[in-house]
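Bug report (template v2)

What were you trying to do?
Predict the complex of my protein with 6-O-phosphono-alpha-D-glucopyranose.

What happened?
Run completed; filing so the output is reviewed.

Input:
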Amino acid sequence: MCGIVGAIARENVVPVLLEGLLRLEYRGYDSAGIVVTNGGLHRLRTTERVAELAKLVSNDKTEGFAGIAHTRWATHGVPCERNAHPHFSGNEKKIAVVHNGIIENHETIRQDLQEAGFEFLSDTDTEVIGHLVSKHLATTHDLLDAVFLAVAELRGAYAIAVMDEEQPGRIIVARNGAPLLLGLGENGNYAASDASALLQVTRKMVYLEEGDVAELYHDRYRIRTCDATTKLNSEVTRPVRESDLTREAVELGPYAHFMQKEIFEQPVAVANTLEMVLNAQSISPRLFGSKAEEIFQKTSGILILACGTSYHAGLVAKYWLESISGLPCSVEIASEYRYREPIANPSTLVVGISQSGETADTLAALNYAKLLGHDHSLAICNVPESALIRQADLRFLTRAGPEIGVASTKAFTTQLAVLILLTSVFAKLRNKFPSELEQEMLIGLRHLPVSIQLALQIEPQIKEWARNFSQKRHALFLGRGIHYPIAMEGALKLKEISYIHAEAYAAGELKHGPLALVDKEMPVIAIAPNDVLLEKLKSNLQEVRARGGELYVIADADSNIKESEGVHIIRLAGYSGMFSPMLHTIPLQLLAYHVALQKGTDVDKPRNLAKAVTVE
Ligand code: G6P
């Protein structure tokens, strides 16, 4: 989604701003823009990629010591240059603003401002911010004060950066519900919505809190925050943190795409996530925080809230938590949960799963669950400084490293690894895990990275399959039991990046509808591990073959299914019990990736999608 970079330094900041935007491209965007101070505010915008913006900047010889830049993912108003950020306050070009998030009351504010004579040139909600700042500047004459007064009128979630033509040595940024951090460099100070945008200039980061407004000069910065009750603002200090993100972690290296890199990083990502148990003798609740044991002892059920791929991880966990720990578990799409009236149970632990920790619906759903009366929450998340991590009582950080490809891969398998640990902890606390089983689990976890490595070796066969898929317009994914959510995840991967319409069905439901769609044009991908449901699944596959459907079966070495005309089989190693869903997901990730390659789509930045969905 939208990205912000701001810079004020002793040198020309244009290269830093452009490089920052390039680093934020992965979040998804449909226009980009930049403004710098250079004897006035100088702006360039485009609906093309950041590379095109860089060309415009170079042709124009744009330079300046302070600037703000933005990638926009359209919410209010179509993607076009007029709607691209930065926005000026009307024709005067006095104030420039970039904004992430949504201003919910923009229509009312717009009306008031129009009545006061302000002219609007875009369809965005953002434009009201610039005008509000202009309005307040007329009375306060101080940009920081004007921004404070402006944000006090805004409702919604946002991060903004503002510049004033008449105060060129200063940038003001504000955070309320959307991520924003400062970067403290040798030659200047910076701001961004994501740390990866600033690694080129600094690793020293200051993460702003909700309600913070900061002013940046090239040699100093100041943060003030607004007290939610008194509405008064006072100066605060926030800790300076050394980011442990490396540039290599956010660079492609020898890979063609981030998705490819991230698929192949999974053995290491899972090993890093499980590091604390790989040499342990037992699995302790303390893995989830010092208060975890006390909270888990009182937990009578689990409610998982998540979106997208993270939701699929939750669906898999439901099978584990119920069958192994005997703990009732429900899993809900966060955007649905937050708008219904569920019955809360204080002793049901709410688990928010999110790669980014920024997904607006997941954050709101967790807050809502708390309001409804759930006593405790746990965050499973990949980003240490994210809102989700700060919001929850307990946390477990997946250590997948930055995930840049929009289609989530290593985040999913690391989430599953954590959910196996959570299941084991509850099984132990509830006396369902005798020590032999715990030891078996520890051995299984130690072998898991190698098992994933082995699963990755089927890539050449998947490439063969991918050739048959690139001309197809639809695909059906089938699974049963715990592999049904894996089929859902496989279908999501395929549709996200190859734009082939893909649907997942619980194989037992086939004859209740989707069988009507099956003909020789409909490839059917079946997840067929050698588990207790294999024989049932085989009957479902017969139903597909009998209607001429071409079958692509991901089986285990010991699944008793034979290759024949119209039945293609890829075999993983022998059945891996509880770990099976994690391994069966690997061929599906590779399939989506290779089909997208065949089709020539933009693998890492699929159309219309965003990496972190920070708006509803
Ligand atoms: C977006 C991404 C998906 C992701 C989902 C949830 O749709 O494109 O890959 O699964 O958001 O994101 P989260 O960061 O909360 O896991």
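What did the reviewer find?
The pocket of 6-O-phosphono-alpha-D-glucopyranose is lined by residues 307-310, 354-356, 359, 362, 406-408, 609, 611-613 (CB under 6 Å). The chain has three domains: 3-250, 258-433, 457-599.
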